[in-house]
Amino acid sequence: MVAASKPAPLSSSNSAADLLELVWSQDLTRDHRFEPLEVEGTLPPSLRGTLYRNGPGQFGQFGVRYSHPFEADGATTAIRIGDGKATGASHVHTTAGLVDERAAGKLLYGLSVPWHKRIANMVRGRDKNTANTNIVAWQGRMFALMEAGKPTEISPDDLSTIGETDLGVIQGMFSAHPHRVASRKAIYNFGLQYGRKTKLHLYELPDVGAARHLGAVELAAAVMLHDFIATDTHLIFFVSPVRVNVPRAMLALGKFDQLFRWQPQHGTEVICVSIDNPSEVVRFTTDSFYQWHFANAFSRGKQLVVDYVRYSTFDSFYDIGNRAHGDSLGVEGKYHRATIDLAARTLRSEQLSDRAAEFPTVRPGDEGREHAIAYAVFDRMGAIGSIDAKGNVVAHDVPADQLVSEPLYVDGHLLALCHMRDRAFVAVYDAARIAAGPIAKIWLDHHVPVTFHGTFVGAR
Hints:
Layout: H1 16-23, E1 32-36, E2 38-41, E3 49-58, E4 60-61, E5 64-65, E6 73-82, E7 85-92, H2 96-104, H3 115-124, E8 134-138, E9 141-145, E10 152-154, E11 161-164, E12 179-181, E13 186-193, E14 198-206, E15 212-219, E16 229-230, E17 234-239, E18 242-244, H4 246-251, E19 260-262, E20 268-274, E21 281-286, E22 294-300, E23 303-310, H5 315-323, E24 334-341, E25 346-361, E26 373-378, E27 383-388, E28 393-397, E29 403-404, E30 408-410, E31 413-419, E32 424-430, E33 440-444, E34 453-458
Antiparallel strand pairs: 1-7, 2-33, 3-6, 3-34, 4-5, 6-7, 8-9, 9-10, 10-11, 12-13, 13-14, 14-15, 16-17, 17-20, 18-19, 20-21, 22-23, 23-24, 24-25, 25-26, 26-27, 27-28, 29-31, 30-31, 31-32, 32-33
């Protein structure tokens, strides 16, 4: 065990909002390969493997800020744990588009370049894959994901960028939110294809064998669709009334957040697709709401039960873009349990807790099955904890000079990358005693911007 020196707490002139703005706007301050890290406390001997976290790493270049944090170049921070020790690496993904820009010494892509360049890129079908949202492991390979592109393969050994891939089946986009179904031994995902008709493509990545395109569902409009969830029988989509402003998108006009419009009069469409027979689709429309992320879903007789974080509007998206600290992303969202009656084509949603929540996860093996407990971030990234089916929350409130990210359950523990003003650390919690605080911390000596999602890969 090595004692870690800790950064000074935020001064009285700095608030939690200042720290939120920092993690949503300041670039990764050091790019490095795996190196020894300081460990405070004692790491459990059974904890062996690598934690991968992905999110924005670079919010602009050449003195120009990108128009929205979701346009940032992605970066992965990885922490290897074993034998009570840890090593870590942080690396901005050197995608083909970023390599082009660095060689040119100027921005070439996105909505921060002059309008005539945007039009030229559109005509030539050129864009930059930012690989800035999630990371998934499949068949010994690692892929960094963004919302509107193909997977970017990276090396699990040193985080170097291998390149974009379609896995032999992807048609257009591949969502940044794949979900595993434990009973089916497979990962599922979707991708939108815009055109005269918007299509929702469905994909399966089995533990053994090639990736599969399961089929496609035609949508009524060009929508923004962030996440979905799966049971052992169905893929479930809550298609909220966020419409892509097609004329603006076609003409590359305005900023990133001006490409989307909240139109609640359309309601939220619920789409449930049979995995075994993708042409069997149940769909209906309910009152409008929005969700960023799901926790889990499972079948209960002829009903589907879905745990998710619900928002009444799309305002949180604009808060992220306009104030760069995502206030509503950690304030308005409430943890809900929805029950879908497939025969009656109805959805009933119950709020389980008044406490603001986000980035929910469940234990590996519970995906697609009924779960007793989910884990989440609470109160504007200020607490981490668990929530059960009755809405009971057990949480640890982190100090005011810290923020916590999405918790991952690993071998009886929760791992979460935490942020301070000029350093970051991985907090290791005993999942049975979350309120007691971390039992160990693994310290990085530099700032890491917000990370959205991640995965843990056990040692071989």
